[in-house]
Amino acid sequence: MDPAWGNASQNGTLSDSPGGAILISFIYSVVCLVGLCGNSMVIYVILRYAKMKTATNIYILNLAIADELLMLSVPFLVTSTLLHHWPFGALLCRLVLSVDAINMFTSVYCLTVLSVDRYIAVVHPIKAARYRRPTVAKVINTGVWLLSLIIIMPIVVFSSTAVNSDGTVACNMLMPEPSHRWLVVFVVYTFLMGFLFPVIAICMCYVLIIFKIRVVALKAGWEQRKRSERKITLMVMTVVMVFVVCWMPFYVVQLVNIFVELEDATLSQLSVILGYANSCANPILYGFLSDNFKRSFQRILCLGWMENAMEEPIDYYATALKSRAYSVEDFQPDTLESESAYRNGTCTSRVTTL
């Protein structure tokens, strides 16, 4: 079997040559190191600075925690890749695959929640103050984890070890008979719940956001706002495209293996690695594209000299009022997030839309 989870540790889907196993293990290790460092910085920044504890950043914190825990399963993949064998036993096999799966689904749903949060902030600014609060965000994050736990129950039930014909042990999902039919249902189920439905929701949110920004920019008529529109549109498309690029190959390979029965071990490994690499991209997409995260990271890395070269965030509220195309009520401060910029050891208020 080549299910969505466990195929990276299954004997037969690993590179047979020692050089190939070392190369794959090295790539896994780099992904793990970058992912752990990046997400740890995001977690530290949000927990360290009180002004960073906005509703959106609470969702980002949950995403970073899920990605961080996802990276912790990589050492097990590296070990099994090098040994061509699962040496950790059946109990740890079930635990690793279950933790890996729940954090994978949690990461996907965190991205979806972030997209809905952006949709509410931009398209429904009047209602934003009611829903976009840190306490509400914490409740929603708890719901995301519970939903992910329910969805991955088949993985918890069917994960176990099996002895291969050569005597080695593989950690995988052992489906009941008829195994192929169960496997088809499982792969389609994970594709729908872990990729297709979240991507549809994310795309719908961002299409509505882009439409709203275009309408506002055209009515405002300010060149500065048009430049801002292009910048936000590019960022939104980058977020969606990186997510799709990282995870679509994984699910395509799984579906092809099931319905076409054309299995390629190297392709399967690369698709798994690319999926894990999305956890490395998230701190960049949701952290480094925020001016306040940039400044906080620079403080951690002692790069304060770069601070003056950063682009100033745009105050859409002030721009829209100057244009007189909208009333004050159309641009309530609830649409904006007050964050903090640190200069010369003092904290000054900044306003940014993302």
Automatic annotation (TrEMBL):
It is found in: Cell membrane. GO terms for molecular function: neuropeptide binding; somatostatin receptor activity. Pfam families: 7tm_1 (PF00001). It is a multi-pass membrane protein. Its main location: membrane. Keywords: Cell membrane, Disulfide bond, G-protein coupled receptor, Glycoprotein, Lipoprotein, Membrane, Palmitate, Receptor, Transducer, Transmembrane, Transmembrane helix. The chain crosses the membrane at residues 20-47, 59-82, 102-121, 142-163, 183-211, 232-250, 270-289. One of its GO terms (biological process) is cellular response to estradiol stimulus. GO terms for cellular component: neuron projection; plasma membrane. Residues 38-286 form the G-protein coupled receptors family 1 profile domain. The keyword Membrane applies. Belongs to the G-protein coupled receptor 1 family. This is G-protein coupled receptors family 1 profile domain-containing protein. It comes from Pleurodeles waltl.
